[in-house]
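Schema walk-through. Below, the input block comes first and the output block second. Nothing else is stored per chain. Lengths vary across the set, and this one has 537 residues.
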Amino acid sequence: MKTLLNIIFIGIAIMIVACSHDTHQRQLVQVDSLLSRFQRDSAYRAFKLIDRDELKSDDAMYYDLLKVVLSMVASPASSFHFEIPRDSVLDQCVRYYKKKNNPRMLFYCYLYKGYIQLLSNHNNYAASVWLKKAEELTKSVKDIQLAYLTFEALASLNYYSGNNDLAMDYSYKTLSCAQKSGNNHMTTYACNHLVVLYLERNEQDSVQKYNALSMSILNKMLPKVRSYALGNIGCFFLGSNEVDSAKHYFEKAKKEQSMPFWDQRLAEVYYIQGNYKEADSLWNKALQSADLRDKVEFYRSIFGRKYENKDFKGSAEAANQLLLLKDSLVQQMQTAEVQEIQLKYDKEVEHRKLDRFIRWALLVALLLISVIAGVVIYYIRKRNKARERIMRDQVLINDYKLQIEQLEHSGKDVTKEVKSLQKKIDTLQLEQTEKLSEGRALYQRIVAGESAVTWSKDNIVKFVDYYRVVNLPFMLQMEQEYTKLSPGNRFFLILQEMGMTDQQMTHILGVSDGALRTTRSRLRQKHTTAITPKQND
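--- output ---
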């Protein structure tokens, strides 16, 4: 009983822990999946629902890795609080996944180590080291999405470094991955890379070819995604000083979905073209955005463009606004951090309440199981004692009958002794009849040729218990010669012992002749009486 309770307790505890781990694992995988489908805003919202303090080592490391990725692709790093630099977080992840021998997660680490060096630290040498490590793992990991991101990063790295031939090679690899995956978003960006590279070479036929391919795919995409893709093309053209082309794509992007970012980009185009009035109008419109981070980026753009044009008054005003906004952004982040601390505290209180509830629930469950187990054990012991008592009584009855036979054959006057023994037999049989009345009635129904198809297991047990009275020697022999007999097995063997034919047994049991043969075969396997082979003379 004690062992049973320990097993049940451990099972309940494991189930609770496993369910909790499974929930966190599913949440992290969901974020990863959303990122792979370029649903970055959804991934960010799903990620913010996860509490790192609840995670164990594997999940916590996965969380840290996704946090770095999200800070780069879904939201500015400033919207996340990092105790140590993101680069150092990835170093920890690299060490952990090397120890765990997890190539896919190492691939992730190498890729985003390279991205940080390329985009944040502007260290092309370090970026190339990490990205080449990621490229090496593409052969073993075989993840088309990660391979695409690696080749895209290497194409950008070589483009920024002036290695246009290598950039072209990696852009074609990027396009190949995108087309194999069937992902329109990826294919569009791969085409954009090739458009930019062919613009550098002034190969207009190829520019038109990949631009047309990109535009044909864009028509199949959602307006929001189409807007970002068109805007991205505009950014490429703006970076290449193709101002008219950039303006064309920014206007198309804005038409698909109007947002402050496109107003800001168009303002830059108009400013470069010398239309300062229209540029200021669009910048003012863009600055209506409620997002402080957007406003900081917009004022940086205004400051940079006006400073380049030697509009020192305009650039000074933008710089002042930029400083004020940065202070406001810091204050906002501090407010958010204070709020997060309070929410975290409230969550810990709720967790403590939940822990107490779980402990009480486990205690109640264990008490309930103890009571049920106690009742079951009591019932089994009671039934076994009753069965043992019936067997002892039957042994006494058989012994008294034998004594009567011996007295009657002695040739003496034994009337008194016989009456005394018969009285004892009658008393014992009366007790058996009271205890086994239901089993006796069931036995009589079988003798009368009725079927037992509708009998419950309890009916079969009562029948078997009564048959001990009818034929105790056979029951003792059966229990010696067979192991692990179920009530149904005992019932089957008793029917055979009663001399039932196969036809009668199929009727009583409600089974086919084949099922009857199968049962006999299985019972032979449970027979423990060894058959000793004959020895050769």
